[in-house]
């Protein structure tokens, strides 16, 4: 049998609650709770303590001697080294990491983590990534080899302090498994000991537990019977220690992209462009000095295949509204997965989601679903043409990859000329130009489609005037809300600006990352769906519908959209102040509204704007922020994430200003400069 050793880290020097692990909790000191529970974990051979080599922790060593518990000592802040030393001394094959501030650890849950680890031959297995169990039930199991590798290679102070973060972040090298809790909503519970508030809470629990090593179900029933106990420690942040130590370290750490670069060469051999989306491809990032492939995300952060971590300001190109691995959305998806994914007939989910959208979006009287934003914009154009019997379309933004639209861009290879001729672009906020265009082809325009807001914001009265103009010319008005949808307001930009279009397209944020889009609009126009061709195998795929219902519920019941405005506003204000301080006003600016500010660059006398953009993105990456064209914030941004972004803006803008002053900006980049993939022709 493998030598599975529980190593419980313990020290007395806690800032928020000094001496906490030897404090009394019920009939025993806190530390004894974890030890007693750990000894009951099925499959465990031994339980030991790893404390620091500081004199102040001598009382822990003495307590262990008295109570016949093996105790190892090691560096105070390099907890990873402490674990490696203890694991070597015990000749452990697998190490179960538990912390002494989790007195309510459940032996059966830990036993399942260990069993999952061994049955999947994982390098690392946990029950808290993503967090689905109560805070305070955390258990991590790692192989000795994984621990030794981390000890050899991890250099970041936060990786040394938190033992397994190096392993859990480097998913390209380590096989990581997670034991998910199938009971919903438990990640909001807090049963850990960090503050005096926690101690009060735990003492109430300790006075009521049915035995020395209660199960998590025992604790839940105590809390369900006496909810006022639960209220005692509400409102405290989970994993505050890790967030604090990440925030404390300099983000400007050495990042290597070797795995990304090698993977890109592999991808290019089998995938034209090496990517499915222009904006995620090598065309849009500084060559060889940027990550090209990600492994996972959590909240506002993502990790690349080299194990580098970033605060993500791309957010999947905007579908991620609530943050990565949002507990409620993921739970809804898991529940639906248990029923099945794609069925032979429709499901009630479609009806429920359509009803929700009709409730939320001003123009929505009927709804059809697709997968990409392009499905929704193209469907809107098709039914507008069907309804009006006209062919021409006026476009005011980006609307997806289909023939009817891309003919208007410079990347129009493969589109029949006859199709290109039917689409006309018009400048935003310029009513005269739009009027002139519509008048040039009287009674020929089926629709005007535009992004109601974006990099350009509508001048007062503009959107209403566009609607009047469209109707005067017999055309329908389509708001493309693929970006603004669920960022500006729960009912989209049409609610925010108080102008209701005839039809509208939504996508991106609707599923928090699951592929779903919707075309919505006036019932009489949507009725054309019964006549036109709009039909797809995955149109009613249920995981995305379930995710969407969870997203909309959250938007309705939690301050998601106010938080998007707040975070976006804080970042934009900071960036603008930094730009001004560094005298870059004529070089870089942020345009648009707080939920989605776009970076705009200008040529200087010596330097092309594309080069400035490239250097800026490269320097943001160096400072730990993944960014492309705009600030795509999510509601998951913590204060620590925002602080990282502030620091990165200061760092990157400072380096751009220095390079411009020295006059060597383009020279620094060589052939790395990012060129635009297309531009929109005006006609
Ligand atoms: N409309 C707008 C405003 C967009 O920004 C996009 C994509 O970026 C689309 C439509 C097309 O959406 P998709 O790429 O999901 O097809």
Radius of gyration: 28 Å
Weakly predicted, low-confidence segments: none
Give the ligands present.
pyridoxal-5'-phosphate
Number of helices: 26
Your description of this structure?
- With 683 residues, this protein is α/β, with parallel strands linked by helices.
- The chain contains 26 helices and 23 strands.
- It is globular.
- The N and C termini lie far apart (75 Å).
- The model has no long low-confidence stretch (mean pLDDT 95).
- It binds pyridoxal-5'-phosphate.
- Pyridoxal-5'-phosphate (PLP) is lined by residues 372-374, 377, 397-400, 451, 480, 482-483, 507.
- Residues 372-374, 377, 397-400, 451, 480, 482-483, 507 line the site of pyridoxal-5'-phosphate.
Q: What characteristics describe this protein?
A:
single chain, 683 residues, alpha/beta, seven-stranded mixed β-sheet, 26 helices, 23 strands, 15% strand, binds pyridoxal-5'-phosphate
Compact description:
The strands form five sheets. A seven-stranded mixed sheet has the order 5-4-1-6-8-7-9, with helices on both faces. The protein has a seven-stranded mixed sheet with strand order 13-19-18-17-16-14-15, with helices on both faces. By secondary structure, it is α/β, with parallel strands linked by helices.
